[in-house]
Every structure is written in C-alpha cells, then in structure tokens.
Amino acid sequence: MTTALRVEDLEAGYEPGLPIVRSASLAVAAGEIVAILGPNGAGKSTLIKAIAGLVPITAGRALLGDEDITAVPAHLMVRKGLGFVPQTENVFAGLSVEDNLDLAASLMRVPKRTRIAETFALFPDLARQRRLPAGALSGGQRQMLAVARALITGPRVLMLDEPSAGLSPKLVGQVFEKLQEIRRGGVTIVLVEQNARAALSIADRAAILVEGRERLVGPAAALAGDPQVAALYLGHGGRGAA
Ligand SMILES: Nc1ncnc2c1ncn2[C@@H]1O[C@H](COP(=O)(O)OP(=O)(O)OP(=O)(O)O)[C@@H](O)[C@H]1O
Ligand SMILES: [Mg+2]
Q1: What is the pTM of this model?
Q2: Of the options 3.40.50.300, 3.10.450.50, 3.90.1520.10, 3.40.50.1820, the CATH number for the domain spanning 1-81+157-162+187-242
Q3: Best of 11, 15, 20, 48 to mutate for ligand 1, by most ligand atoms within 8 A of CB?
C-alpha cells in the first residue's frame, strides 16, 4: 500500500501557544477517499489548511508521498501535487468560467489549452457555461468549478473543505458522484464534511476529529452504523477514551 498523504502528531493553530489541531495523526492510502468528520469547531478546516500550508504547523509533520511538506508554503503546494478546495471564496466570481480555469492552469508548466479541454471534457456543464461569470453559476456548478480549478493542476491528492455546504441533496449527490469519478481517475481524496451521511456513503474510510485529535478512524461502512460517532458529535461519550 502506497501512502499518498500522512500527518504525524500534527499540531497547528493561528496563535502561538493556542493549538487548534492537537496531535492529529492520519495516513491516507493512494486511491482512497478519506472523510474527516467531527463537530463544529473540532479543527477539521484548520487541519487541512495546515496540511495545505495555510496555517502554521507548530509540531509534528505532514508528508505527501515520501516528501516532507511540513514547511512548504501554500503557493508551492500545487506544484508538489496537492490540490485544495477551500469552503468559501474558491472561485473568482467576476471572471468567466474559462478564465477561472485559465488562471488555475497558469500555476503549472503544462500546455494550458490541453488541460482546459480535458477539464471541460470532465465537466461538460462548465463547458457549456464557459463564457458566464462564475458568480452567475448555480451553487452546484460553482462548486464544480472550484473542484475543476483544483483538478486542472493535476494533483495526486485533492483536499476539499465541505464541498456539499449550501447545496440541495440532489446537488450534493452530483458533486459527490464527480468526486468518485475523479478518484477513479487516480486522484486520492481527502474530504472534510459536516454532511457525515453523504461523506460516509462515498468514503472508504473516515476519521472523526474531536478537539483537534482524531478519535475514531475506520472503514466508512462501519462508522456509518457506529453509535460512538453520534456520541462524539454530541460532545460526550468519547472523552477520556484515549
Ligand atoms: N482564522 C482564525 N483565527 C483564529 N481562530 C480560528 C480561525 N479559524 C478558526 N479558528 C478557531 O479554530 C477552532 C477550530 O475551527 P475550524 O474552523 O478548524 O473547525 P471546523 O472543525 O472546521 O468547524 P466547522 O465544522 O464549523 O467548519 C475554532 O475554535 C475556531 O474559532
Ligand atoms: Mg470547517
């Protein structure tokens, strides 16, 4: 089994002496979809932002494949093969769909035209709306564009922060189906989600993060029926368990 992404005893936070992620450890195998779940404020976003180089890591380390990326700044992550889709402000609303993709593709030393054509083949709805400003897209299509922007850089690992936020169940289904298609294309996926049910339905494994630490890690199918998961969400039942 090849490990695509690994964090070891990671500590990260916004202010010195106030860690939000406290000793989180997780290994993601190549080709997996791993969901990071947990209650509000657990540190899920902080964890993936820290891996992406956007929040300072104060202890532990992060590895992409065999490479230590703990100290790699955010703007260099794309070239290392790590894609990140933030929850908000993940597209340029005033730019057209095509210009959004063009800008993302410029981060790489690859022929842009080819990459944009490949991306439109994977996202035919975006191809039809290529001239529209991103701000005029529906919520679901805007989220697809955010995913497409990350994907156009050819990441080995794609991390997404709540891609289902604000979407109707039908659109959540469409976005998640697209993620499965992307995985079939060989991309490893790390998915932070509030929508535990939807995330567990496409994930191979999941980690429940509570107070900055992973508390329960296991196969998604097992966690979907585990009463401990609900208890951890409600903020009791897990404390002191390790
Ligand atoms: N930019 C920031 N500056 C200071 N503290 C922050 C910042 N962003 C988040 N925090 C704090 O870090 C803690 C964890 O926040 P984080 O956003 O990582 O949680 P989360 O698990 O993603 O929650 P949610 O499910 O609500 O998205 C919270 O206490 C939050 O107030
Ligand atoms: Mg969050």
Answers
A1: 0.93
A2: 3.40.50.300
A3: 20
